[in-house]
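Quick note —
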Amino acid sequence: MINFPNSPGFNVLIDDVVLDWFCLINTKGVGPKTFWALMRTYKTAKESLKHVSNPFPRNTAEKILRAANCNIILANENTFPKGLKRSCFCPPILYYRGNKSILAKKKIAIIGARNASLSGMAIAKNLASKLSDRFAIISGLAKGIDTNAHLGSLEIPENEAAIAVLPTGINKVYPKENKELCEKISKHGILLTEVTPCSGPDLGMFQARNRIISLMADGMIIVEAAAKSGTLATAKAALDVGCEVMVVPGSPADPRSFGSNLLIKNGATLIQNHMDALEVLQFDENFERPEIPDQTVIVDDEKDIDDLRDRVLSLLSTKAVSLDEIAYHTNMSIPKLLCIISELEISGKIVKHATNEVSLA
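Predicted structure written out below.
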């Protein structure tokens, strides 16, 4: 057991399990999907580290965690957001500052354009403020709509409703002008990230942040989104996992609303105020996000996983076939299939080709 009492705000005892998980997920070539495939195959991170090339140095891991000035949650803990376990890309570790009990609340994401209009920012702030007495408000700390959603969720500090998901390490503020906002959220909400401490912004991490937001949210409100934008991609990801997506309509002449208006055209719910959002979610104390099958390997029954592996192997030969074809014949979702394929590839039973096809080894 390693204790870092000299790091202000970092009051977690880091045991060998935490260090094993940290070293495994930070080993080059090991992302969340591979992490869970390894865990399924070898049962523990300690054992998995014996089967990867050039595992992340343990002494370096200790130094990073010593300097992190944050707390952590592992995916096998009860306080870990259960919505994230809907995906085989579930981050094994979350780093946070603030009150983690907020993660147990029902959550609404409010996201939108960075170059938002004044009216759009005012709408986002008002929605967050009005909904913060019943929901935690999630956003991504970006300029524009995200920033104003956070500001609205902080208007009544005692609600403790602010959740900011960062695309950077917990010690890096992006954009820099939101430093003061980050400090307020850490006191009256929670800052959350899957990114290793001290890491700066990276394009892939913006996408990972958006995925976390879409998986955690019970409902999502879009305020201004261009036709090709991260906001629109996040909304589509949320729809894919059963999240209720609501949209504030915008002017058809404003490019910042092309994407959000398209969502409405394609079936998303139009709302104009917080009462509309509550009506859509049919809010009461027993409100639950619609259930969908869990897809991450950490929640599946071992026997079921064995059956799925056998089904996939029975369809394969030395001739390469596409993942779509396997999914069709097994009636398996692509995320689930990708988890199984990763496990079989790691165990050496199949070969994955550059053409996104697989065959028996």
